Amino acid sequence: MHRLGSGIAGGRLAPAEYEQNFSDLHPRFDKHEALVASDRCYFCHDAPCMTACPTEIDIPLFIRQISTANPLGAARTIFSQNILGGMCARVCPTETLCEQACVRNTAEDRPVDIGRLQRYATDIAMEQNRQFFHRAAETGRTIAVVGAGPAGLACAHRLAMNGHSVVVFDAREKAGGLNEYGIATYKAPDNFAQKEVDYLLAIGGIEIRNGMALGRDFSLQDLAADYDAVFIGIGLAGVNGLGIEGEELSGVDDAVDFIAYLRQAQNKADVPIGRRVVVLGGGMTAVDAAVQAKLLGAEEVTICYRRGKEHMNASEYEQDLAASRGVSIRHWLAPKRILGKDGAVAGIELEYTALRDGHLVGTGETGVIAADQIFKAIGQSFKASGLGALSMEKGRIVVDDQCRTSMERVYAGGDCVNRGEDLTVSAVAHGRDAADAIHLAFASAGQPAVAVA
Amino acid sequence: MADLRNNFVGIKSPNPFWLASAPPTDKAYNVERAFKAGWGGVVWKTLGSEGPPVVNVNGPRYGAIWGADRRLLGLNNIELITDRPLQINLQEMKQVKMNWPDRALIASIMVPCVEEEWKAILPLVEETGADGIELNFGCPHGMSERGMGSAVGQVPEYIEMVVRWCKQYSRMPVITKLTPNITDIRNPARAAKRGGTDAVSLINTINSIVSVDLDNFAPVPTVGGKGSHGGYCGPAVKPIALNMVSEIARDPETYGLPISGIGGVTTWRDAAEFLVLGAGNVQVCTAAMTYGFKIVQEMISGLSDWMDEKGHRSLDDITGRAVPNVTDWKYLNLNYVAKAHIDQDACIKCGRCHIACEDTSHQAITSMVNGVRHFEVMEDECVGCNLCVNVCPVENCITMVGLEPGTLDQRTGKIVDPNYANWTTHPNNPMAQVAAE
């Protein structure tokens, strides 16, 4: 164990510490806890929590089902709107969605624990592999889904329910998308993302082809020709760069790669981490990278964000989580130059910033933070090829409220479209709604020409 | 400080909180603990005839219903009267009374409806120094199958007969405990009074099946696969008890008959409600069985503080104060008009008032105003039913506001009449009495 060794190294902690650090952030409620928490729900009319949920889960109903000792019924309520309700229960920023809308906040400043109650019910159903949905009679239609992330999986499941066949193409080795590769380890331990994929695929009629990349192995045009419809849920594969001196130095890494690598690492002690780590950015990815760097044994972890606390995309809850794990968050600092020594990172020079007339400007004053590893978490961007003439806007695929793109029979959803927030739960809503739209389009196109005499 | 000293048919206790005849008062050990905790008196668990003691089931005796956070709302039991030998109980009662001369100690008795049985047990009880006796005509389970308990309480003639024996063969004050398992509580109360009782106490437990085990298809508590109806008590029965107490308190035939109020008393407020409806004191069981004897301390301080705040100096100042305000429906003022009012600052926007009114009442509460979630009473639809007040999770967020006489009731389009008028004279009433000219 060389906790304080400089440079980037693994094994900074004792094995037990790794286990503790990467265990479940919020262990599941036991039955008693769930009953106490569910008792707090008022069963509101036209409940604000439900309105705040992008997938519009009937939250008052599922909580009432938990309170009446019917967690399986609760799970059915959840899954009927959101088949990835298990992961959403773990990763949704509930503090800015359902729980923010909870009327209990008004009276007591403490919402009903909606996320943890959702996890309670979905975990019980998934552990029993209780399937609530079954395939309708085969329709003979086959739909291609590009991307096995939350949007693609939700779309595939809903299509399968309606009796269609689905082929899902994904560039990575495993299905799950960001659920598998982009979520902090402690938010979904025990291989939950794969278990969820298995649970979802059990409905049948869905084939997943891994290692198949759009633009490399096939084009949108191919799919449009071969399938009855196409759904694109490819997320944001690109990572924004800094464009400053020293970016090429060893020890400057993309936070998303670090998070993915850590997720896939069987032994967390094998994941090397710097002694002093700087994370650039202000979103959930920055927090996930910073917290996990700390959990891997980094001595100092600093998030540097070029704007103020109120501008951070990471929720207050996430910021508090980072602070509680010993991460320092510094605001109004923009990266200026990465300093190196012997080809590796030695530190970062940052410039103080300020808002002047609504514009972010450098003040000219600079400072240096010593670092042996720097993570870039300044945003992901759309990156894809093979889409042909698909209409785009501000680097995202243009869709309407039914997730239809500019091309006939081609739909899209999730982070790659110009609609909704970049959240797992929004992606699920898109995928589900696109599936419904596809089904509806088939139905209206397939009206029988001759009525029964 | 308010004076909480209680004098109930000559039986004195430092406060009006007695423990009812039940498991908490089955033996000296418990009663000593109760007195140490501050209880003003106890009614010792019911004594039976000399001879082999009764036996209880050896499986579960209690079942319950719960509210939010598993707060116990109702308790059901199938326990019988004391299953300890009579002589042991009598010895312990005597000792406890000697140890605690300032507390009330009442003996509850249940023996068959045979004059010799009562004649035999009364002197034994009197010898203990007990302050009085309570006749258990209430237990609805087990003993009633043997012609005792509620089987007596359901037949006014038996009540009168046994009370008469007790007054004849004992100098002790007699409290007759009534069963609620009858259609009109006034009849057994009147019978007890005719027999010469000094007081009545009520209610005993209500016949009930508290729940059913859906795996075994058997009532709870389940004893070897079967269940039996039991006696229901606890907070859930309070409204039934309050009504029965008030019925006796305002009945011309029993008016003034001392009442010991029983049924779901859990807090000082419950006790105060029994007192103002005509009870001279209260008896408690389920609250103690749920929380232990210490709860009497909350009851004492709560009642005392409330009395101080309101300027009531003694229990006599409050006992029966609400009785004149209990009336029959037909005498309620039909010219009184109230409307619900929602305090928008207190409203948490749960919408329960709206949906309750919309789905089940009078469609008088908005849910959306100008595209914004907003709950407000539409006075032209509101009949003043008070349902919204009861379903609102925030206390005092919705209140009923009486319209001033002379103002317009937007629902009826009529001016609120300042004069009292009830159903007996209402034009829609075919039986209406013609108003005296």
UniProtKB/TrEMBL annotation, chain A:
InterPro entries assigned to the protein according to its UniProt record, in alphabetical order: DPD_II (IPR028261), FAD/NAD-bd_sf (IPR036188), FAD/NAD-binding_dom (IPR023753), Helical_ferredxn (IPR009051)
Listed SUPFAM superfamilies: alpha-helical ferredoxin, Nucleotide-binding domain
Residue span(s) of domain Dihydroprymidine dehydrogenase: 20-129
Gene3D superfamilies in the record: Alpha-helical ferredoxin, FAD/NAD(P)-binding domain
Organism, as annotated: Rhizobium lemnae
Domain of life: Bacteria
Protein name: NAD(P)-dependent oxidoreductase
Chain ranges of the FAD/NAD(P)-binding domain: 142-431
TrEMBL record, chain B:
Domain 4Fe-4S ferredoxin-type: 338-371, 373-403
Keywords: Iron, Iron-sulfur, Metal-binding, Oxidoreductase
Protein's UniProt keywords contain Oxidoreductase: yes
Catalyzed chemical reaction(s): 5,6-dihydrothymine + NAD(+) = thymine + NADH + H(+); 5,6-dihydrouracil + NAD(+) = uracil + NADH + H(+)
Record-level Gene Ontology MF annotations: dihydropyrimidine dehydrogenase (NAD+) activity
Task of the protein: Involved in pyrimidine base degradation. Catalyzes physiologically the reduction of uracil to 5,6-dihydrouracil (DHU) by using NADH as a specific cosubstrate. It also catalyzes the reverse reaction and the reduction of thymine to 5,6-dihydrothymine (DHT).
Entry-linked PANTHER family: DIHYDROPYRIMIDINE DEHYDROGENASE [NADP(+)] (PTHR43073)
Protein name, entry field: dihydrouracil dehydrogenase (NAD(+))
Organism, scientific name: Rhizobium lemnae
